[in-house]
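During the no-cost extension, the postdoctoral fellow (Dr. R.K.) reprocessed legacy sequence entries with the updated structure-token encoder. One reprocessed record is reproduced below for audit purposes.
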Amino acid sequence: MKNGKKKHSGDPFDPAPADKFTFGLWTVGNPGRDPFGEPVRARMEPSYIVQQLAECGAYGVNLHDNDLVPFGASAAERERIVGGFKAALEDHGMVVPMATTNLFSHPIFKDGAFSANDPKVRAFALKKSMDAIDLGVELGAETYVFWGGREGTEADACRDPRTAVARTREAMDYLCEYVRDQGYALRFALEAKPNEPRGDIYFATTGHMLHFITTLAHPEMVGVNPEVAHETMAGLSMVHGVAQAMEAGKLFHIDLNAQKIGRYDQDLRFGSEDQKGAFLLVRLLEGTAGDARYPARYEGPRHFDAHAYRSEDEQGVWDFARGCMRTYKILKARAVAFDRDPEVRGLIAERTDRELEPLLARYSKKNAKALRAHPIDADAVAKKGLGYEKLDQLMMEHLLGVRG
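Re-encoded structure tokens follow.
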């Protein structure tokens, strides 16, 4: 290595910084604690994590404020820690594309942060967020994620849910104005989750967040950060949620992991569950289908918000990190081959109709009249098979490596 950058091995699936793969300090740094057991791995220092991720071929590292600076640290301690971390980033050629605030661990947030009934809690959440935004900007972050882990209820009668929505809006508008006032080149990404640690969390899905953004004072500054596990917990398609965000120009960041439906938030290694869904997600992000109506691909970092099994020691953590990145690259290669397959292209080619297309493009009285007059044999159209069974089988054969 030179300046901390890994020399590429020549393996096409070996990760490299150009792939823009990132991990959070809290992901590879997870010590394996769970509600039923104590940690199984020693805590790793942030600068050491930076070094090891660079060795694995990652592009960057993300963090909550307290992943780096302990809660309650003095100003002098903060400066010492941040200075050492910045030096490690420089030494190993790593960046911090995204930062976020921990508004869920401290007991003050037991009733939420931005939505809490106590105004002292809401004020503390704003103060903590502004300090953490300053830290993120200092480290070079361009995206700031908000996950409302405690923004929810068990006893739903504690507040009118509309009040929770309004308070959250006030907080986001406040922080948007703070960023504008400071002159920061920063945008926000909102992360949805249906439940855990609360019984119900407000803004449970990416769709909820997309609508909420339209009600903000500065919607242009705010997008979404969908997570595979969170959408799967809600029984929804991550691919569809991400597609809607991309179509709206609101996919500001993304969290990649894996999840078994109907379970607690597992944060499994990317692609270790639902390989078909992972394949379709990578295909969407990489734009291999090549629909000219949309941007070719998602250009932001590919962030893995996951952690190693509790069975692992430190070596298993780095095996996990490499596995996330390699699986993504393998699925990308499979997606490219799939979309280049002539049989696939023939099956998904759009049908055209020179007479109908202009009438469908936009409403006018003339178009509506012509559309109503246009003869369509519904029975004849209904009899045509679409070939989706074959298409799905071709996808599976590409995914399993027997084609392409």
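The chain has 16 helices and ten strands. Residues 377 and 383 are 10 Å apart (CA to CA). The remaining legacy entries will be reprocessed before the final report is submitted.
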